[in-house]
Each structure stands twice: as C-alpha cells, then as structure tokens.
Amino acid sequence: MITPRYTREIPQRYHLEAGKCTECNFIAFPPRLICPECGSREFEQISLSPSGKIVTYTVVCVAAEEFSTETPLPIAIIETDEGARLTAQVVDCDPEEVEIGKRVRLIFRCIQKEGLAGIRQYGYKAVLEG
Amino acid sequence: MTGIVGYGAYLPRYRIKIEEIASQWGKDPTTIKNGLLVHEKTVPGMDEDTITISVQAAKYAVQRARIDPQEIGAVYIGSESHPYVVKPSGTVLIDALGIGPDVHVADYEFACKAGTEAVFVAYSHVKSGVMRYAMGIGADTSQGAPGDALEFTASAGGSAFIIGSEKVVLEIEATYSYTSDTADFWRREGRVYPEHGGRFTGEPAYFRHVLGAGREIMERAGLEAKDFDYAVFHMPNGKFPMKAGRTLGFEKEQIEPGWVVPWMGNTYSGSSPTGLVAILDVARPGERILLVSFGSGAGSDAFVFKVTEEIEAVRDLAPSFKSLLEENKIYLNYGEYAKFRGKILMNT
Ligand SMILES: [Zn+2]
Fold this sequence. Notes:
By secondary structure, chain A is mostly beta strands.
C-alpha cells in the first residue's frame, strides 16, 4: 500500500518544499533533521524555485512495466537555481533535444499510476525552457 | 466592485490534425473540416489530466492576481473528466498551490458548463462577503469514442479565474442561468465514452439554451449586442457559436477574438472560459464582454464582464493564450494519439 508514503511526500512532490540550513545555507531536498555540511539542526522551510538546469541525464529505453508505453524516457538530475539537486523525468520533447546544461522548468504532472484501480500520484517533472 | 482579479489558461503541447483522424476512419477530411470549421485539436500528454491542467492554469491565475494563495477561501473545479469518480480533483490542486487547509473545495459536473458553474458560485461567495477570494476552474481531457463525430473535436485544456473585490480586472456586471432537462448528451456511470443525440444536440439543446441565456441576460442588463465589444459562446465546433452569435445580433468581428475552437478543438468545461482568456490577450479597459456557456443536460450560464484598467498591469504576468496555442506544438499521428488517449487495448 503506497498511499501513506505518497501522502507523507506531498510537500516535496507538489511544491518542492525544502529545508535551508540557517547556519551555512545548505539546501536539503528532501528536508533533513541534521545539516550534512555543518551539523546544525536549524532549518528554514522554503519552496525551491521551479527552474534550473540539467546536470546530467540518461534515456531509459527498457522501462519498468508501468512506464513501458513512455519509452524512450529521458530522466535527468536537475540543479535548481538554489543549488538543490533532484531527479525528474523530462517530458514534452524529443529525447534528442535533452542536453547537459540546458535550462528546464519544473511542472506539475501525474508521475505514476497504481494500475487502473489504485491512486494516481502527482509530482514534478521537467520541460525544456524556450 | 466584484469580479475576476486573476486568470490563466493552459493547453497541452500536443496536437492532432483533423485530416489525420478523418483518414483513419476513411472519411473525407475536407467535408469534416468544412462541417465543423475545425483544423486541429489539443491532446493531453500521457501524464496530463484535468488535475494537472487545472493546477497550471490556477498557478497562472495566482501570478496575475498577485495574492497570497492562503487567502483563497474556495476552490471549485468543473469538469466532465475528473480523473477519479470518488476522490476530488480540487484537493490535489490546493496542496499543489499552497491553498488551505482553511478552504472550501468541491468538484463540479455539468457536461461542458461545469467551469462557468464553478465561476458562478465562486463569484457569489465573494459578492456576499463570505470570503475575500474564491477560485473557479473549467478544465477537461474529454474523449469521443473512436470513429464518432466527437473524436474530431474533443480536446484538452482549461482556464482558472480568481474572484475578488480589490484590483478587479474584469468586473462582473450581470449573471444569468437558463436550465432545463434535455437529454442531448450523456455518459452513464462506468462507461468510457459519452453518447449523444446526433442532430438533437443542435436546436433543442445548444441553441435553445445559449440563445435563451444570451437574450435574457442582455434584456435584464438593459444591453444590446452593439453594447458589447466581444462575445464568446460555448464552442462544440466552429459553426454553432458563430450561428448563435449572429442570431443574437453580434457581428463576426465581436465573436472572432474568443472563437478559439478552429485550432484548439472543444475543451468542454474549458471551452468558453478559455475563449474569454483569449479575448483578454487583446481587450482594452472599458470594453464589455458577453460570455454564454453551454452544458448538455442542459443549461447555459451567462456573464456580462467589463474590462478595467487593471488588465494592463496583469496581462503579461503569465503566458498569453496566443503563445499557449501557437508555440511549441508537437503533432501526433493517429497511432500515437490512440496510445496517448489509452485507446489501445493493452495486456496489463
Ligand atoms: Zn548547515
């Protein structure tokens, strides 16, 4: 049953909620209890900006069954403008267009469906800018 | 003064041309295009639905309204394609936008007029002073059965409107609804595709309600067609809204700016609301707009809007309708379209 975990992760998946260390400005996404850089436990709650750039990516050609109709499927590590890194699918483009360094915008999409009867899970994906 | 303080539309990037659908079913594309006055329609991506379309349109509306989402007291999404039969669409939206939990949420249904219905109720809340802001949204990812006439026009998109009483962009001068029990189009519980009454969807359904609502709101407001700069009617195809508009005394020039169906298709609950957003690309302060929606079953909601000076301050705070319609299109062939819309029988 995936519902409790999904519900717990809504703040990160829906609006990119992150923690900013008040001592050293490290951005923890998802939020952490202890800063890995300075050991502080004091964080300010922020929402990451929905824009950033592609740090690296891969194109999945043989995907897990639930994504099998979406291949070839680009998945990228994206650095947001605050410097936080996250992994997201890059959609609405030809996989050939995906390149390291390209600017992306994070958008709200359905990210997974639990079969035909289960819940639909929503969260962030990326689209290329411009 | 109470009215719209923020608005936004969203269209998916994917398109399919009418020729592509016609050739799949061995029909003559020219006859179809001339009959419907539609060239192409939007198609939702495989990860898009009424909820994601509503979220994007609502984000643009908040950008234009320049308000704290926490101050929105009600969120209503009108659609005939809510992704769940049981579980609201609006709850996802409020958490995505940072609205609530101090908020009233409901999903509306009334075929293609569910969106204006949502705006209608949102307006009443604010006008009565119950809350400072309320949001009404019309969005759909509607489907026509393969080979059915509806398949040529059923498309995806939506628009969101925030109602308030400060920094009003579009004053709501009058509202009116015209409703009767008319079985022109329906979908029973558990069925995938809707059924319709063919030609019965015209005179006794669309025209009776659209003309009834249009005539009555103008009568009550003491206005005539010449008092309006723009008029937008529900757009199941290109012909119906033009004919309804001309019958009510409007000129083609008043109808065309909101007549978005030829290149977008029929976005159902998002049809006339998105036509309104298209008008706001070009509308100037002081201009007056008539909007008449239509939902099968059947009913029409009508609004008289007056554009204020605020339009110039908010117009460029989110993408124009023109850019959403014309930029970055990705065309699909029928096979890809069938896959995107889940029309292919899979083994899992
Ligand atoms: Zn730190």
